[in-house]
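User:
I study polymers; will you set down one protein's sequence and backbone structure tokens?

Assistant:
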Amino acid sequence: MKSPAIRFRLFAVLLFLIGMLLASCGGGASPEFSDPVFQRGQRIFKRECTACHSTKPGVNIVGPSLDGIASRAGTRVDGLDSRAYIYRSITKPSDYVVDGFVDQMPTTFRSSLTDEELDDLINFLLTLE
């Protein structure tokens, strides 16, 4: 029979390996949640966008849910990748109105947000896959 000290070390190694396996399979916290750019973008989203947009699947408020926007945005307009589509949708919202929704998104975000805030907001939205 192995000594208690050896069993404890084996148990600790086993727990460490299980933790590493879970982290590599998505069981750990996503790194963007601690990223300052993500956090700034999320704050801007909460301040500027949540009155009209949800990030929950199928939950439409005034505008469409933004759940999955990072994946969908790159397929909406030929020649525009996700970043370009989201940028254009924020700065010139009348250009691409989602079917079933009224063109009522404010057109002031380009002047009311700084370049850095706009970039942080877009980076946050690009995490919504």
The helical segments are 4-24, 36-48, 69-76, 82-91, 109-112, 115-125. Residues 4-24 form the longest helix (21 residues).
